[in-house]
C-alpha cells in the first residue's frame, strides 16, 4: 500500500486526521485545510454555547414558576396535591437541567485546560474562555436566585409553623423551632396539643404540611449544594480574567470609535485640500492666460 493510500484509509476511519495528513503538501493547502477544520470546530462549539444558553434560560423560567407555586402553596392552609406535585416536578426539572449545564460547562473547561497545558494560545481559545466564563456566571446567577427563592420559602414556612403553634397555645423561640426543624422531630411540639377544637386540628394540619415542605426543600438544597459551591468557586476564580476582558473590549470599542472619527476627519481634510489644490490650479491657469495675453499685446503679437 502506497503512502497516500494508507493515509486515505486512515482518514476514512477518522475524518479529523485531515488536520495532519496534508503536511507533505504545499503550505497554502495545509493552511486552508486547518482553517476549515478550525471553523468546523468553532461551529460545534457555538452550537454547544447556544444549547447551554437555552438550558440556562429554561432554568430561569422554571425558577419564576417555582416562586408562583410557593405563593400558591402558602396561600392555602392545606394545598391540593396537584399544586404540590407541580412544585416537585419543577424542582426535579431544575435539578436535571442544572446538572446538564454543569456537565457541559465542565467539559468545555477541561478542553480549555488541555489546550493551555500544551501552551497553545489563539483567538479561538480566548473566545472559548470568554464564552465559558460568561455562561458560568449566568448559570451561577440563576442558581443563586433559585437558592434565595428556596431560602425565602423555608423562612415563610417556618413563620407559618410558629404562628400555628401560637394558635394552639404553644410558644416557641426561633432557636427551639430551628432545632426542631433540623432534628425533624415535630412531635416534640405537637404531642401535647389538645385536639379540643376544629381550630386546633387545622393548626396541627398546617404545621405538619409546612414541616413536610421544609423537609423536601432542605433535601433539594442539599442535593444542589455541592454543584453550586463548585460553580461559584469557578466563577470567582474567573472574575479577574473576565474583568480584564471586559476592560479590554470596552477600550477596544473606544479605540475603534476614535479611529472611525479620526478617519472621517482625515477624509474631510483631504477633500478640502483637494478643493483648494484645484482652485489654485484654476487660478494659476487663468493667471497664466492673462499674463500671456498681456505680454502678447505688448510685443505686438
TrEMBL record:
Q: What SUPFAM superfamilies does this protein map onto?
A: t-snare proteins (SSF47661)
MF GO annotations: SNAP receptor activity; SNARE binding
Topology with respect to the bilayer: Single-pass type IV membrane protein
Main localization is: membrane
Q: Which InterPro entries match?
A: SNARE (IPR010989), Syntaxin (IPR045242), Syntaxin/epimorphin_CS (IPR006012), Syntaxin_N (IPR006011), T_SNARE_dom (IPR000727)
CDD domains given for it?
Answer: SNARE_syntaxin1, SynN
Annotated compartments: Membrane
> Which processes are annotated in GO (biological process)?
exocytic insertion of neurotransmitter receptor to postsynaptic membrane; intracellular protein transport; synaptic vesicle fusion to presynaptic active zone membrane; vesicle docking
Where the record annotates domain T-SNARE coiled-coil homology, the positions are 204-266
Could you tell me the keywords of this UniProt record? Coiled coil, Membrane, Neurotransmitter transport, Phosphoprotein, Transmembrane, Transmembrane helix, Transport
Listed GO CC annotations: presynaptic active zone membrane; SNARE complex; synaptic vesicle
What this protein is reported to do is described as: Potentially involved in docking of synaptic vesicles at presynaptic active zones. May mediate Ca(2+)-regulation of exocytosis acrosomal reaction in sperm.
State how it assembles: Interacts with OTOF. Interacts with SYT6 and SYT8; the interaction is Ca(2+)-dependent.
Q: Which family does it belong to?
A: Belongs to the syntaxin family.
Report what the protein is called. Answer: Syntaxin-1B
**Species:** Salmo trutta (Brown trout)
Q: Which gene encodes it?
A: STX1B
Amino acid at each position: 500500500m502506497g503512502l497516500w493510500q494508507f493515509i486515505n484509509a486512515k482518514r476514512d476511519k477518522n475524518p479529523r486526521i485531515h488536520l495532519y495528513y496534508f503536511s507533505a503538501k504545499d503550505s497554502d493547502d495545509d493552511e486552508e485545510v486547518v482553517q476549515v477544520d478550525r471553523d468546523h470546530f468553532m461551529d460545534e462549539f457555538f452550537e454547544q454555547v447556544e444549547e447551554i444558553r437555552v438550558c440556562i434560560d429554561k432554568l430561569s423560567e422554571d425558577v419564576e414558576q417555582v416562586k408562583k407555586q410557593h405563593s400558591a402553596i402558602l396561600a392555602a392552609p392545606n394545598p391540593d396535591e396537584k399544586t404540590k406535585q407541580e412544585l416537585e416536578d419543577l424542582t426535579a426539572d431544575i435539578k436535571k437541567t442544572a446538572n446538564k449545564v454543569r456537565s457541559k460547562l465542565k467539559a468545555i473547561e477541561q478542553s480549555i485546560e488541555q489546550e493551555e497545558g500544551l501552551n497553545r494560545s489563539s483567538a479561538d481559545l480566548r473566545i472559548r474562555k470568554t464564552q465559558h466564563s460568561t455562561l458560568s456566571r449566568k448559570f451561577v446567577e440563576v442558581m443563586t436566585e433559585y437558592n434565595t427563592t428556596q431560602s425565602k420559602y423555608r423562612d415563610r414556612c417556618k413563620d407559618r409553623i410558629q404562628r400555628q403553634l401560637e394558635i394552639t397555645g404553644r410558644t416557641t423561640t426561633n432557636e427551639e423551632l430551628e432545632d426542631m426543624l433540623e432534628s425533624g422531630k415535630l412531635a416534640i411540639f405537637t404531642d401535647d396539643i389538645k385536639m379540643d377544637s376544629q381550630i386546633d386540628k387545622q393548626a396541627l394540619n398546617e404545621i405538619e404540611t409546612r414541616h413536610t415542605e421544609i423537609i423536601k426543600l432542605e433535601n433539594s438544597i442539599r442535593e444542589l449544594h455541592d454543584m453550586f459551591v463548585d460553580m461559584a468557586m469557578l466563577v470567582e476564580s474567573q472574575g479577574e480574567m473576565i474583568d480584564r476582558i471586559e476592560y479590554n473590549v470596552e477600550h477596544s470599542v473606544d479605540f475603534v470609535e476614535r479611529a472611525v472619527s479620526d478617519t472621517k476627519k482625515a477624509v474631510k481634510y483631504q477633500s478640502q485640500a483637494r478643493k483648494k489644490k484645484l482652485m489654485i490650479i484654476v487660478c494659476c491657469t487663468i493667471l497664466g492666460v492673462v499674463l500671456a495675453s498681456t505680454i502678447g499685446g505688448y510685443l505686438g503679437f
